[in-house]
Amino acid sequence: MSQGGIVIIGAGIAGLSTALRLAPAKVTVLAGAPLGEGSATAWAQGGIASAIGPEDRPEFHAEDTVKAGAGLVDPKRALHLAQKAPGQITWLQKLGVEFDVDSHGQLALGREAAHGKHRIVHAGGDGTGAAVMQALIRLAQKTPSIHILTGWFAQDLRVENGAVTGIVLVNGVRRAVLSAEAVVLATGGIGQIYACTTNPGAACGDGLAMAARAGAEMADLEFVQFHPTALDIGKDPMPLLTEALRGDGAILVNSEGERFMRSEHELAELAPRDVVARAIWRQLQEGLRPVLDARECFASRAPDKFPLIREICLQAGIDPAHQPLPLAPAAHYHMGGVVVDEKGRSTLKGLWVCGEAACAFIHGANRLASNSLLEALVYSQNIAEDLAGKVFTGPPSLRQMPDIPNPDVENEKELRVELRRLMYDRLGLVREKEGMTEALKRFAEIASTLSPHTRLSSQLLVAGMITTCALMRLESRGAHFRLDYPKTSSIAKHTRLTFSSFRKNAASYLDAAWPVENAA
Ligand code: FAD
Ligand code: SIN
Question: What's the burial of 145, exposed, middle or buried (CB within 10 Å: 0-12/13-18/19+)?
Fold first, then answer.
C-alpha cells in the first residue's frame, strides 16, 4: 500500500463536509480554486429538502424522490436520505448556519416543484448555498486536522495493483503527483460542458474523466437535468431564477400572454423540472419567447424574500418588481456519475465519491429540487464513518513531474466553444440519433488532435461518455427525451459504463475508435 493518508478532491459541500466529519483524522483537501470559488454549492438558491413540517414525514419525502426519478431511484436509499435529512439540518445549525424562520420562530419551509409538501429549508431567502459554504469554510480553516491545498487541479488518478495510490496534479504547465491511500472525489458536476449552464467554471466533469480512465464504473450519464428558468441576459454562466419563485406564485407566460404550463401539466408551473424545461424549450423553438412573471414575489408580498435575484436583475437593468424576466433552460445538475454503494465506495479500491460527481441511485432520471445538497451531506457522513475505522500511514507527499508541452490555448478555446454548443444543441432537452452521432464523431475527431493531458481532452471524454449513454438508451425517461424514441419502456434499466465498455460502444456509432487515453 502507498503512503499519503486521505486526500479529498474538491471543496464544495461534499468535500468540506467529509473533511469536517473525518476530524480529528488528518486529511488534505485539494481545492482547485480558492475556497468558496468554483463551487456550485455557494450558488445554491432554493435550499435543502427535509421533512420536518408537522404534516410531513420522511416516507413522503422519499416517495416524492422516487416518483420524480422515473423508475430509476433505489427506494431504500431514497428513504435513508429522507430519514437522515433532519439531522443534517441540525448539524448545519450547530456549525452556525442560520436558517430562515417564520413568525413563530419555526424553520420556514418553502415549496418546490414535485415536492408534495412545504419542506425546503433555506437561509437568507435565496442565499442558502452561500450561508452553508461560509460556515463550512470558517470551520474547515479552524480545524487543525484539515490541510487545504489550493492552486493545483487534479487531472488523473494513479492506480497500482488495482488500487488508487495518488493523484496527478496540474498547475499551468507544471505537473506533480500527490500520494494518497484513500481518495474522496468531490469535484461536482458537468454543466460547463454545455453552452448554457447555471454551473460555475470548475464544473466540467474532471472527476468523471479521472475516475473513468482509472477504471471506475459510471452509471446513468445520459441524465442531465436542465433548470427551466435561467435568466437569459447573455451571461455565462447564466444566473439562476430559483424554482422557489414559482413555489411563491411566479408564473410562466409566453409572448402571446398565454400561461402555457396550464395546458402542459396539472401542476402547471410546479410540474417536474424536465416537463417545465421541455415546455419552455418548445415555446422558444416556436418563437414564443417565454418569460417568468415574478412581479408579485418582489413587489407586494415579501420584497426581501429573494435578495440575491433582485440584485442580479437590478444589475442587469431589470426591475423584477415591475418587469417580467427573460429566461432559457440551462444545464444544471448531473444525475449520472461514478457508481457508489451506501458507504460512498466506488468500484475502484481506494476511491470514494461524494456529491454531484457520484451516482448513488438516489436521483434516478430526474432529481427532485433541493435533494442534492442533502445527498452530499448524508453521504459525507456515510463516507466519514466508513473511513473512520481505517489506519493510514501518513501525510501525502508531492513529487514534481516533467512539465507538459505548452498547450495551444487559442485553438482549445475555440474547440471548447464548439463542444459546448454541440452538447446544448444535440445532447440537450430533445435528442435524436443522427444529431447525437454527428456530435460523437466530432468529439472523437477533436480528441484525436489533443494531448490527453489537457482539461479539454477530459471534457471531450465526458461529452463522449454522455453521448454514448444517450445513444444506448432507446427510450425517453425523465430528463432524457428522444424524438426518435418518445415512449418510456415498461422496464427501467440503468446505463452502466466503464472506460473500456465506453470505447467499445462508442466505436459502434463511430467510423473510427475513440482515441486511447490511459490514466497518467
Ligand atoms: P461543488 O460545490 O461544485 O464543489 C466542487 C469542488 O470541486 C469545487 O471546489 C471545485 O473547485 C472543485 N474541483 C472541480 N474540479 C476539480 C479538479 N480537477 N481539481 C481540484 N478541484 C476541483 N442543490 C440543492 O440541493 N439545493 C439548491 O438550492 C440548489 N441550487 C443550485 C443553484 C445553482 C445555481 C446550481 C449551479 C446548483 C444548485 N444546486 C442545488 C445543486 C447543488 O448546488 C450541487 O449539486 C452541489 O452543490 C454539488 O456539491 P459538490 O460539493 O458535489 O460540488
Ligand atoms: C432552485 O433553487 O431552483 C434550484 C434548486 C435545486 O437545483 O435543487
Answer: middle
Q: If you count them, how many residues does the chain have?
A: 520
> Cis bond leading into 54, ω under 30°?
no
Does residue 273 have an active-site annotation?
yes
Fold of 409-510: Methane Monooxygenase Hydroxylase; Chain G, domain 1 (1.20.58)
Q: CATH 3.90.700.10 in the chain, residues? A: 229-330
Give the domain 229-330 fold.
Flavocytochrome C3; Chain A, domain 1 (3.90.700)
Ligand 1 centroid to residue 456 C-alpha, Å: 20
455 CA closest ligand 1 atom index: 18
In the structure, how many helices (H) and strands (E) does the chain have?
14, 20
The alpha carbon of 492 and the centre of ligand 1 are apart by a number of angstroms equal to: 28
Q: Is the CB of 9 under 6 A from ligand 1?
A: yes
**Is 153 near ligand 1, meaning CB less than 6 Å away?**
yes
Which of these, 152, 162, 171, lies nearest to 519 by C-alpha position?
Answer: 162
Please identify which of the residues 21, 158, 175, 273 carries the catalytic annotation: 273
For the Cβ of 5 lying below 6 angstroms from any atom of ligand 2, the answer is: no
pTM for the model stands at 0.97
* 3-class SS letters over 222-272: CCEEEEEEEECCCCCCCCECCHHHHHCCCEEECCCCCCHHHHCCCCHHHCC
**Any atom of ligand 1 within 6 Å of the Cβ of 32:** yes
CA 138 / ligand 2 centre spacing (Å): 24
Task: Convert the pLDDT of each residue in 146-186 to its tens digit.
Answer: 999 998 999 999 999 999 999 999 998 899 999 999 999 99
